[in-house]
Model the fold of this input.
Amino acid sequence: MMKLLYTVRKRLISALLITFCFITVAQADRSNWNTEKVEWLAGPGGVIKGIRFPEKVESTLDTSNGFRLFSMESSDANIPDNVINSPPLAGFVPRIAVNVTNRHSDDLDWVGYPRSSVVGHYLTNNPEQNYIIGLLDTGASSNIISYAGSQIVGISSPQITPNTVQLIGATGSVFGRVSMPLAVFMDGLAAIDPNTGFLDDSNMVGESNISVIVGDVPEENQPDLPTVVGTPISVYYVTSINNDNPISVTYDGNNYTAPDIKFYSHTDDDIPEYSNRIPLNLIPTGAYDVQYFPDLDFDTLYMLPLIPSTIGSLLQSLFFVSSVDLIEGTKSAVDKDRFMFDTGAQVTVISSAIAARLGLNPSKPDFEVEIQDVTGGLTYEPGFYVDSIKMAALGDWLNFTNVPVVMIDIDSPEGGYLDGIIGMNLFTEFNLVLYGGGLLGQDPPSLAFERILPQLIGDIAPEGGDGIVNFMDFAVLADAWLATPTSGNWNPKANIAPRYTPDSVIDILDLSEMAQYWLDTLSP
Done:
């Protein structure tokens, strides 16, 4: 998350997108704490690089529940079927394929237009090879193309304005550049051929005539900006996120795994139908389109984007869960409506105000996370296990117990601070359908969900599994030994470790996971 200050020549305009206001924890003696190195997204500009926890607590990368911390005295006994107990600290990463064309409107049209197929001309001669692996991020109120990504898809000086954006982190700031109006398109990783790495753009959707933030050349020891497709595009589409069908690809020497993500128009008959739905709100309300804020260039007499395209221009709306209840012992924070729904955050966050309501003490956390901000600087933030978090839904409410959260204050687009962020660690056991909406004339946004049926890890043979992990499954894994997505013997069903973030190589980690469940069967 980050605060953006838009600078044009010598004129400074302050415009909030999303801000992490980091709280420095009073550092008690942590010499007897254990440390694990991790790489988790905390939203745009924030990456969790490590986690620290007391010796009396043990950690595990459990194959069915992701990274968890366990008290030696904790127990999962007698948990009802409709309750998720002790969700992982970090959830999945919704990675997507992204490309750019030159499609834009005339100089006096600042509005973005949703596109159900690719329009315009790509900026490179080989768009099937020159694309970006980005992030679907509903916590971003503007779209961002990394510097490295801009070089891949061909964004060059004619597509860049003189205007810049200052992104402020906890320890400093970096600059991004404001683009000329372009068109951005996206699809899930399933659009990438696992053998050739070529991108099939036949099902890509996106938006034209939008200005984006483009990363500048990173300074020494500073990370590049991420490539993210934010709410200004996802507001127009229905997005399915299928965690029961992870997709693995290798691109540009890197391995990526993400849920199977598909995009639909709101009238598409193929949208998955789930019986449970969480009402969302687009806040601030009242926006009627996506647009950039223009500025007259007196040298050329053209209207250039001053501020990148957001929902409602200066309103910069985002998705919020309509009602969240939190309970810790005898204390509670009930019916909170300022929890942002953020697909770009792997963790769940609460504000210091919510932490105070729950009686949590930041000087005595259950764990700490080390966060790297947009500048590369590091800070430690306190984490806690909260007794209960519930989200109101039409149908079954979502109910979580023993929930890991990180305490960070984040500026709200309405002013003040968010109550927190609902991150993807709460949804690892669900398939989701995000209905964009909330603009004037649209239906309200919502999140439909369905819990994934129990699966036996390692039960990969025959097709669909047979309810037992045995030599049939071992034979399938052995046939794919040391395979990657570009190998002729690649088998994605054997890519089972680590859970939720498989590493796209069939090796000893996958064999070890299968061995843990050897001869196990599904309960009748």
Summary: The two ends are 45 Å apart (CA to CA). The chain has a mean pLDDT of 85. The helical segments are 147-153, 231-234, 352-357, 471-479, 508-516.
